[in-house]
């Protein structure tokens, strides 16, 4: 963008001669289809003769705005008119620019109902400039301009107006308009330098050089007014559950009903990096066959979409819902926070299902996520929560989220199984085959009886936990936690089946079974712990990030205990070997051979050396392991734990 300064007459004249063009057609010889887009920067008429220059006199035409203060995403009216009244013009071009550097074009114009306005796409943005669509004489032109949702500051409307072929003015400025946050109450209107009925506009100037103007101090902004009226004049619902009371929602919605007018407000959480925020109206609190309202920031503005969540596949499909069933009343996208205010039709019918907001009762389902698909929003990886019960939207009330019992039970069972019983069962099988020798339970050696009981418990808890999460989700959701968890469940399910076909102790294939059983069990254990680590990051789990350090502490403790057991096993094996070697030393008679056989038989019926150490270490391990399990289960069941102790 090049700056044209009227103070340099020679330079300005040369530039204008090079770029001059016609705006006006018909009886005044202007371009009948309006200004071409290659004059977006200069706003100069493109006269073919190159002989006519813009006027340096005070323009008889002026730019008047309906307000001097506008909220983000709101609309104001802009009038181009002449003084005295009745003065007509044929062509024009207008755009709003940032009053401060880099003086970019901002906002968007709306199409006119009578078709007299042609919208232009300047600086690779849509509808941010406007020109005439016909060259007939006009006493006045009124345009609707929507302020940007991601801009705060002052804008100035600049226009080129052509009274005739030879008489045109370039860069006619309006008084500045202050764009403020949409929820900023009581901002003093910017003063108008000259009465709107008595224009006294400056001389022709380049459109990106604003007039001299002192901005008054704005009133302080309210930090967060979304929560005002919750439970009194509007029904508010957000996640995590209970966040409305603490004003700390990561996703928030509000429903306001006035007669047959149903308005929905949506907002993402601060610092959530949300790509969308959506609200579903659901008959059953489960995703599927729901009417959804989506607010998505795209290309500098927040767009509204209506969609229908299908059962198969589980996706929000926009094409099946009339986009005219909802209207965007207000929107903003500031500091990464999405806000929108939407009015929906009282009745919307989608694929044979009718959503009657006045007579029906619906669960609210709020969701936000960081990704978008081609024709829908992406997975709600920031969070999602349905209301506990369906509500009459017209009844203002306090809402709570649906029960998380199945999710909490799933997490608790998996921790008990894979942090608790599996870890202890592996210890018994690996280090206690030569402990409690001669003692049995149900006809089985102690180590095997405990190992089998603990692993059967693991298998039962895992299967139940997996069923619970399927009942809750009713669909497959693929991410790191679900993939590693599924592999763990498969290995867990196979292990006892393989044990049923265990070869006999002297079978030549027994070593292969032993290695396969060992590998499957340990792999399942490792993957299960990895899956628990991944679960900490799941929004639905609502677990604190510092839970990772508790899991790290468990892993370190578990590995350390294994090292101690391994060292004691090596020492025990060495001592047993020395005892056997003692019988083999010196001259062995028949009597001695008989005594040696009896001694070795007695050795097999005795505990291996350091049995006391192993039993003591097992007791310590069991107590500490129980503490880890209890703490982790409490974090899962009481999630979010910050809310309990906050």
Automatic annotation (TrEMBL):
**Its principal location?**
membrane
What is any Pfam family matched here? DOMON
Q: Does the keyword Signal apply?
A: yes
Location within or outside the cell:
Membrane
Give the superkingdom in one word.
Answer: Eukaryota
- State the family named in the UniProt similarity comment for this chain: Belongs to the FRRS1 family.
User: What region holds the DOMON domain?
Assistant: 246-369
Alphabetical list of InterPro entries matching this protein: Cyt_b561/ferric_Rdtase_TM, DOMON_domain, Ferric-chelate_Red/DefProt, Reeler_dom, Reeler_sf
- The record places domain Reelin at 25-195
Gene of this entry: LOC117571980
Record key words, sorted: Electron transport, Glycoprotein, Iron, Membrane, Signal, Transmembrane, Transmembrane helix, Transport
Q: What's the protein name? A: Ferric-chelate reductase 1 homolog isoform X3
- Indicate the secretion signal residues: 1-30
PROSITE patterns tied to this protein: CYTOCHROME_B561, DOMON, REELIN
Q: Which residues cross the membrane?
A: 409-432, 453-471, 477-501, 513-534, 546-571, 618-641
Tell me which cofactor or cofactors this protein depends on.
Answer: heme b
> How does the protein's chain sit in the membrane according to the entry?
Multi-pass membrane protein
Its GO CC terms are:
membrane
Which positions are tagged coiled coil?
none
Give yes or no: UniProt keyword Cytoplasm: no
